[in-house]
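User: Hey, quick favor. My workstation is busy. Could you predict this chain's structure for me?
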Amino acid sequence: MKRLHLLALVMMVSVAAFSQTKEEKGVAASVDRLKKAMIDGQRAALENIASEKLSYGHSSGLVEDKAAFVEHIASGKSDFVSIDLSEQTISVAGNTAIVRHVFNAATNDNNTPGTVKLKILLVWHKEKGSWKLLARQAVKTT
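Assistant: No problem, here it is.
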């Protein structure tokens, strides 16, 4: 009987440790919307998900504002065929959220197929009830 109670307790703690809060689920949904908008190259969706104060850092050191980020993807200059995110963590503190993940993508920039694997840090800020991408920084994996 004690084993059964201990097993039940361990299972409850495990479920609680891995379940997301409502805010974390909202951030995760915003990450998914960003991913979809980047693959689809949808200008309106990209503009909607990004904060007016966006700072978008590439692994090359290039930093773009919102207008440059949107134009780069919507114009097809940066073309994502597919994006796979793994090892994602989300931490929410008030109206700010930090997301980290590994970003694997198939690209077709300037009609040249390629792949990219990066580690990404995203900073989201809740504005008028919606999570907006405030900052992004990518680093090359080793």
